[in-house]
Every structure is written in structure tokens, then in C-alpha cells.
């Protein structure tokens, strides 16, 4: 493996970590409802647990309500039960074929808790990125040890990986700050 391949591999994995972090941020609730909030809910569908999005259509009905329209008539009660038993603190109600999931208003205390969750997620993303930096640097050191690269190449490669790491961590910080503003906006 060459230094360029090590750098490319580290960059790819850092982008994956960043995408995973963005996905996790989408699940943290802000003041407005988001159908992605229900991505973690799984429903019993003929003996196997499947994500809610695979058995129903999720839509926004208004500024405070998510609509869940099951694709099969008999799934309504199971979906309602799964949402109620999830750790999201939601209380769905049926209206014919449609299940309405109203979002309770967020208290100031809950907003503060969510900002802590976002900061924690951001810190976990930074740790993952730093671990990838360490792995890349160890890969370059192995090449130098095996006499496949010079020490000057090692220094340049480590500088490049550090710049990449700094860029990714800055992106994580921007995402955390943006999400905190969304959460604290009333």
C-alpha cells in the first residue's frame, strides 16, 4: 500500500464517519417534527422486526404532527403500539387508516438535554476521526520501517493527514453548532 492509498483510504473513512454523524444528528429532535425521527422504530411484521418506513408511508401533516399511513389494514394497531413503546415519548392516535403522531412541545430543560446529546455525538465523531488519523499515521510509519517510503515522505503524509483531520473536525463543530441553534430556537 502506498502513501497515496493510505491517505485516500483515511479520507474515505473520515467522510463515512461524518455521514454517520449527520445521520445521527437527524434523529435528534428539534422543535419541529421530522419523519426521520421514527427511523429507529421497528414493527413486528409477520414474525420479523422491520423498520417502520418499510410497512408504512411517513409524512408531515402539519407543523406539529407526523402522519403514518400503513400499507396494510391490519398493521395499524401494531404500528401504534411500536411507536408508543419506543423510547421517543410519543403518543400516537388512530383516525381511520391514518395514525397521527403529535409532537409534544419541548421544554427548556429538554432542549438543554438535547444539546448535551448533540455535543456527545459530536465528540464521538471527533474520536472516530482521530482514530482514523492514528491508523493512517501508523500505516505510513510501517512503510518507512519497511523502507518503502522516506522520512520526508512520512512527514509530508502526516501533515496531509493532519490537515484532513482538522478539516473534518471543523465540519463536525459546524454541524454541532448548527444543530444546537435549531434545538434552542423556540
From TrEMBL:
GO cellular component term, pick one: cytosol
- Which intervals of the chain form a coiled coil? 140-167
The listed locations are: Cytoplasm
One record GO biological process = cytoplasmic translational termination
Q: Which GO terms describe its molecular function?
A: ribosomal large subunit binding
Record bears the keyword Coiled coil: yes
- Provide the transmembrane region boundaries: none
Q: Which UniProt keywords apply?
A: Coiled coil, Cytoplasm, Protein biosynthesis
Domain (Ribosome recycling factor) spans: 21-184
- InterPro entries attached to this UniProt entry: Ribosome_recyc_fac, Ribosome_recyc_fac_dom, RRF_sf
Record's keyword annotation contains Plastid: no
Source domain of life: Bacteria
What this chain does, per the entry, is described as: Responsible for the release of ribosomes from messenger RNA at the termination of protein biosynthesis. May increase the efficiency of translation by recycling ribosomes from one round of translation to another.
Which PANTHER family did the record assign?
Answer: MITOCHONDRIAL RIBOSOME RECYCLING FACTOR PSEUDO 1, RIBOSOME RECYCLING FACTOR
Which family does the similarity line name? Belongs to the RRF family.
Q: What HAMAP family does the database record attribute to this sequence? A: RRF (MF_00040)
Q: What is this protein called?
A: Ribosome-recycling factor
Q: Which organism is it from?
A: Hydrogenophaga crassostreae
The uppermost taxa in this organism's lineage are: Bacteria, Pseudomonadati, Pseudomonadota, Betaproteobacteria, Burkholderiales
